[in-house]
Structures are given as structure tokens and as C-alpha cells.
Specification:
The chain is an alpha+beta fold. It has one domain: 4-Layer Sandwich (Glutamine Phosphoribosylpyrophosphate, subunit 1, domain 1). Helices cover 31% and strands 32% of the residues. The protein has 4 helices and 12 strands, in the order E-E-E-E-E-E-H-H-E-E-E-E-H-H-E-E. It is globular and about 50 Å long. One of its GO terms (biological process) is proteasome-mediated ubiquitin-dependent protein catabolic process.
């Protein structure tokens, strides 16, 4: 088993019309043994920028703390929040710095940039960025997430339709992966509000 699959995870971010959604499962496991069913994989950097971390849970928490520290330094120096594109470059640099002993994480970055344009991207454990205009996925359920998102995604969805689409894609995908599941955690971000919802899924 790959170290990336040790804790199991499912992460997906999707863009809509001047909005985006990011969702994850809630299971924390040690291989096939479930440890917790309310584990947080999505972190708020500021109101318009969210970070999802799949992979080894301990590395994800360490990396998150380092990134929050770097973002707070930026806020103090620049007196403004980081743009999503800038934050993606920061994450990439932090990961590449540790390329000879990497964090076993695959980050998903989602945010609203200038003129409320949604930005999403993912990267591998040494910071090679992969940008997308529709959706990005990460984690042990990523193969089934690709299939579900390809089938369900359509451009320029409004916030409610986007929530429904990402939720259905997540729930149907984690049913096909025994290392992730136990419900879902969804954030839908528009220029004016942040909606957070918990999904109930199969508990087996």
C-alpha cells in the first residue's frame, strides 16, 4: 500500500458561475480500520480561499500549519489577503523545498480571484501544479471522482446546482472506494457568502 493511501481520502473542487465548491469525505482510517468519522480535510485560509489536503493526515496537518504561518506573514507585510494564484505558487514552493523528503500530501486549492473569477488547482507532493477550468480531484477515490465529475459537470452552474452536483459526485465516488467515505463536508463559496454543509452518506 502506498503511504498516500494509508489514511484514505476523497477531495474534489468544482467551479460554477462566479462561485466554486470544494468537498471532501470525513473518514480518517489506518488502512482498513476506521479511526474517526468527522475528520477535517478542508481548511479556510480566508473567506475567498480554501485549501483541501489529501494524503497522510499527519503531514497534511503539519503542512497546513506552515501555510497558515506563511499566509499570516504575507497579510502583515502586504496588508491584504493572498490571491488564489499567489497562494498556489506559495504551496508549490513550500512543497518543492522539501522535495527530497516530501510531505505525503496532494493539495487542492480553490478560491475566488479578481472580478470573482473562480480558480482551482491541484498539485503532486513536490509541487507540480495542475490547473483546471472545470474540476480537480485528489485522494484514494480520485479515479471514481474523475468519472462522476466528467458525467455530471456542466459549465456556469449557479451555487445551489453546483452544491447538488459536487455532493452527488462525491457520494457516488466514495461508495466505490473502501478507504474513504462516512459522509461528506461541502463548502460552496460565492462573492457574498460561504455555505458549509455536512452530507450524510453510507456508514459502512
Amino acid at each position: 500500500m502506498s503511504i498516500f493511501e494509508y489514511n484514505g481520502s476523497a477531495l474534489v473542487a468544482m467551479v460554477g458561475k462566479n462561485c466554486f465548491a470544494i468537498a471532501s469525505d470525513r473518514r480518517l482510517g489506518v488502512q482498513l480500520q476506521t479511526i474517526a468519522t468527522d475528520f477535517q480535510r478542508i481548511y479556510k485560509i480566508h473567506d475567498r480561499l480554501f485549501l483541501g489536503l489529501s494524503g497522510l493526515a499527519t503531514d497534511a496537518q503539519t503542512l497546513y500549519q506552515r501555510l497558515v504561518f506563511r499566509h499570516k506573514l504575507y497579510q502583515l507585510r502586504e496588508e491584504r489577503d493572498m490571491k488564489p494564484e499567489t497562494f498556489a505558487s506559495l504551496v508549490s514552493a513550500v512543497l518543492y523545498e522539501k522535495r527530497f523528503g516530501p510531505y505525503f500530501c496532494q493539495p487542492v486549492i480553490a478560491g475566488l480571484g479578481e472580478e470573482d473569477k473562480p480558480f482551482i488547482c491541484t498539485m503532486d507532493s513536490i509541487g507540480a501544479k495542475e490547473l483546471a477550468k472545470d474540476f480537480v480531484v485528489a485522494g484514494t477515490a480520485s479515479e471514481s471522482l474523475y468519472g462522476a465529475c466528467e458525467a455530471m459537470f456542466k459549465p456556469d452552474m449557479e451555487a445551489e446546482e453546483l452544491f447538488e452536483t459536487i455532493s452527488q459526485a462525491l457520494l457516488s465516488s466514495v461508495d466505490r472506494d473502501c478507504l474513504s467515505g462516512w459522509g461528506g463536508h461541502v463548502y460552496v463559496i460565492t462573492p457574498t457568502e460561504v455555505k458549509e454543509r455536512i452530507l450524510k452518506g453510507r456508514m459502512d
